[in-house]
Task: structure prediction
Amino acid sequence: MTATSLVVHSDPDLLGGTPVFVGTHVPVRTLLDYLEAGESLNEFFEGFPSMAREQSVAVLQLAKQILVAHANPA
Result:
């Protein structure tokens, strides 16, 4: 089991396979869209009160690790 599979799930029978937070129907992209629009994590949680802060932060940490690991050296 990978760290990603603990927080992100994709199932063709759930939202057509869109990656969602485990145990929810909230697409991961929704969190990223909120942040891209300049909204805060707190505003995301207001819109999705069932979301756990720990799970959202874990997704952001995974994204950071992936981006840093695949960054081209200067």
The domain at 3-69 is CATH 1.10.10.10 (Arc Repressor Mutant, subunit A).
